[in-house]
């Protein structure tokens, strides 16, 4: 099933990158884009999984956008971001990933991130390590943030308060100083870069559970840590995350972040 699904998705994304990168609609803001490929890939994944596991549940980015609930329960649940980096996809910027996390009892059991244009399949199973195209992954051993590259993103929220806090945090982190700040344009790819040891840490406020479910397992199985931006235990439904190579760097980043709390992924939908 999985090989067939992967081949279909790979072909679908590559053909769409060549022939159809049109924006179909926007969601939370004029820059929160959706394409037909986002929807087709998610439908293909859900259909394929349902055929084999009809009782399993799903949290899919585009299904939630269409009104499906975003509730993570103890049931076996597939958490899907069909195209992570949709803005990159629309611009043919080469970091476009498919991210699938599988959770039972609210714990990720395996995660897959396929970085389409790099043809890199990142995989992790809980307790069994993280891999890229079968090669084991290990986070960076760097303990000194002034010798680190930090990744972050600005998302699609342009509200003044959120922007002010994001730029205040960024300024403080840049001026530590760190050796570099990077934005792949995809949370999942940023987390794969942490798991691969290319980037020491990634943080973002505004992500969704589907952006980070698979990547969170890749990071921890590669020896890294996850933390809330205020230093507590990460909550994948809180829309805030730090994924780092070690606690030292994660705690250093916490000191510089002006945090805020977006509406949770599992917040009750506003009454109609
Ligand atoms: O919407 P996609 O492309 O699935 O996910 C991206 C968000 O749009 C963006 O706002 C966020 O910053 C980025 O991390 C995420 O991958
Ligand atoms: Mg995403
Ligand atoms: Mg997406």
Automatic annotation (TrEMBL):
> What's the name of the protein?
Inositol-1-monophosphatase
Q: What is the lineage of its organism?
A: Eukaryota, Metazoa, Chordata, Craniata, Vertebrata
Q: A GO term (biological process) for this protein?
A: inositol biosynthetic process
Q: Which PANTHER family match?
A: INOSITOL MONOPHOSPHATASE, INOSITOL MONOPHOSPHATASE 1
Please report the organism this UniProt entry assigns to the protein: Scophthalmus maximus
Which GO cellular component terms are attached?
cytoplasm
Question: Keywords on this record?
Answer: Cytoplasm, Hydrolase, Lithium, Magnesium, Metal-binding
Q: Which family does it belong to?
A: Belongs to the inositol monophosphatase superfamily.
Q: What is its main location?
A: cytoplasm
């Amino acid at each position: 099933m999985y090989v067939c699904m992967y081949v279909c998705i790979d072909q679908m994304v590559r053909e769409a990158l060549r022939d159809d990168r049109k924006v179909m609609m926007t969601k939370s803001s004029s820059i929160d884009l959706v394409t037909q490929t986002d929807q087709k890939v998610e439908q293909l994944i859900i259909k394929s999984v349902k055929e084999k596991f009809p009782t399993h549940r799903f949290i899919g980015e585009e299904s939630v956008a269409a009104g499906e609930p975003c509730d993570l329960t103890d049931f076996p649940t597939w958490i899907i971001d069909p195209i992570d980096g949709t803005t990159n996809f629309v611009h043919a910027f080469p970091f476009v990933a498919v991210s699938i996390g599988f959770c039972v009892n609210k714990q990720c059991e395996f995660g897959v991130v396929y970085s389409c244009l790099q043809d890199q399949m990142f995989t992790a199973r809980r307790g069994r390590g993280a891999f890229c195209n079968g090669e084991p992954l290990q986070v960076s051993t760097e303990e000194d943030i002034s010798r680190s590259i930090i990744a972050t993103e600005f998302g699609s929220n342009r509200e003044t308060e959120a922007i002010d806090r994001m730029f205040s945090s960024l300024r403080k982190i840049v001026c530590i100083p760190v050796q570099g700040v990077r934005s792949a344009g995809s949370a999942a790819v940023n987390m794969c870069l942490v798991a691969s040891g290319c980037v020491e840490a990634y943080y973002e406020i505004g992500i969704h559970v589907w952006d980070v479910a698979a990547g969170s397992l890749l990071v921890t199985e590669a020896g890294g840590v996850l933390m809330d931006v205020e230093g507590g235990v990460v909550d994948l439904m809180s829309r805030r995350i730090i994924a780092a190579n070690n606690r030292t760097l994660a705690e250093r980043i916490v000191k510089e972040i002006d945090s805020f709390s977006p509406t949770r992924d599992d917040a009750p939908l506003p009454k109609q």
